[in-house]
Amino acid sequence: MTIKSITALLLLAPFLLAPVTAQQGPIGGDTCETATYDPNTDYFTSKITVDNAALFKVRYEKNYKVVSTTAVGNVKDYVLVQCGTPAPEASMFTNGTVFVTIPVKNAASLATTALAYIEMLGRRSALKLVDTEGLVSSPCVQMGLDSKDIIGLEDKNMTLRAEQFNGADVVFSTFGSEPGTEDKSVITSEVSDPGPLNRAEWLEFYSTFFNLEEPAQALTASINNNYNCFKAAANAKSNKPLVAWSSYDAPSKYNDNTASWILSGAPYKQILTADAGGEFYNGTTSSTFTSAADFAAALKDVDVIIDETNTGVDMNAFLQNYQLTADADYKFLKNKAVFREDGIVNPNDGRDWFASAVVMNDAVLQDIVRAVHPDVLPADVPYNWIRNIAKDESMKVLTSADCTAPDAAKPLPDRAIVCSTMKAGGKGSNAASKTMAGALTAVLGLLAVALTL
Ligand SMILES: *[C@@H]1O[C@H](CO)[C@@H](O)[C@H](O)[C@H]1NC(C)=O
Ligand SMILES: *[C@@H]1O[C@H](CO)[C@@H](O)[C@H](O)[C@H]1NC(C)=O
Ligand SMILES: *[C@@H]1O[C@H](CO)[C@@H](O)[C@H](O)[C@H]1NC(C)=O
């Protein structure tokens, strides 16, 4: 272990020490109560407090937790009961409340987003069923699919699909519940929670299903600290480049065969832009255009473009989609500042932007800072999702061969560098000792030991 990762560990010490003492004894954690259930015992000595997320809450009782999702106009309760202890009366809760025995051992996920959260918590071993498996970017989940330790949900034979769901204790979904799985479906809204740190805190939401509150809090705290360090560094710059997140929507049956160009106003993109030391731009009077000329006119002062168009992976395609010529008089063309979110994909263009970038928001901000104020970061800082097509940066295609932690209990490492020890403009960002991954894996390792006492 290097000095730097020891330093990082010490910074995390407050989060590290508590669970070691708190989790001792045969309660909570992975231990199921057997003969000696005591209604006065607090089975959950580590509890989360929700600091940033707006769309979930947790209430702790002695042997169960009530996790509530509060997506607009639709509060839904999930009662998480410690294994081996009695579930509370269903009549105490609203109709449709889902009961889940924890810690969860067999999880299904209908969206790829949940995978990154579960993997970051070191619980890939609990992941048994995955839908849209062709879009999975995680190398180790791809490996699990190859080895059939993780099963891709059947799409055609609905009898078989229903049988597959029988083996799941819980089905995570970002949309509704699938018919037949209502009593075990958990609808999550990490992608709608409006800020980057809100999204990261959904680690704590997922942790409640595995009794991993303490490491989840440590992870969230380290992501937040690293995020805020990048934010401070970028906002020390006095100039604020104008940043647009834009896309071209080609004519299709979904849009009346009418082309349009769109400037996104998504709140998390606004926050990321401001936190990267940029000025967010989504138009002056309108953010949707049906004329390429009007759209081009609206882009005249934009310094940095983040192109979110689905198709078109290089500069030629970008120029064609935006109906611009390479020598046109635009700052983002002269600055060579045209970025896309497809820096990490799987072989089918399954974008990791929709998976690990939803949780690792310190690494996301690092990427946006690299686009807006690159001189704030080490000169050789690697990009993750946000690649510069104006400089021909390539896509990194992840396959199961990239799984560096085949042990199902190994946490997925954060992709960010450690901001507090970075040297702006300097070299050496690639050293393992300077990634968040090294420090966090060590923390999770120690916590794993503590939790299995
Ligand atoms: C609960 O909701 C279901 C489905 O909406 C309904 O069929 C059932 O009658 C309800 N039960 C009670 C006790 O309200
Ligand atoms: C669908 O799956 C069921 C259950 O595994 C199986 O019995 C049946 O033969 C399958 N149907 C087809 C058409 O393959
Ligand atoms: C930019 O986005 C914000 C937030 O979504 C929205 O309120 C505003 O109307 C948008 N600006 C324009 C010009 O459409």
| CATH architecture name of the largest domain | 3-Layer(aba) Sandwich
Distance between the termini: 24 Å
Bound molecules: 2-acetamido-2-deoxy-beta-D-glucopyranose
DSSP helical segment count:
14
Biggest sheet architecture: 7 strands, mixed
| CATH fold label of the largest domain | Rossmann fold
Residue stretches low in confidence (pLDDT < 50, at least 5 long) are: 1-26, 445-453
Helix content class: 25-40%
Keywords: Signal
Protein name: Periplasmic binding protein
Organism: Mortierella polycephala
Describe this entry's structure for a reader:
Keywords: Signal. This is Periplasmic binding protein. The protein is of the alpha/beta class and 453 residues long. Helices cover 31% and strands 15% of the residues. It has helices spanning 3-11, 13-22, 113-120, 139-147, 158-166, 196-207, 213-235, 267-275, 292-298, 315-322, 331-334, 356-359, 361-372, 436-451; strands at 56-60, 64-69, 76-82, 98-102, 107-109, 127-130, 151-152, 170-173, 185-187, 242-249, 260-263, 279-280, 288-289, 304-307, 338-340, 344-345, 387-388, 396-397. Strands 10, 11, 12, 13, 14, 15 and 17 form a seven-stranded mixed sheet that branches. A five-stranded parallel sheet has the order 7-6-5-8-9, with helices on one face. It has a four-stranded mixed sheet with strand order 1-2-3-4, with no helix packed on it. Strand 1 and strand 2 (64-69) form a beta hairpin. Helix 2 runs antiparallel to helix 7, helix 2 (13-22) runs parallel beside helix 14 (436-451) and helix 7 (213-235) runs parallel beside helix 13 (361-372). One 2-acetamido-2-deoxy-beta-D-glucopyranose (NAG) is lined by residues 95-96.
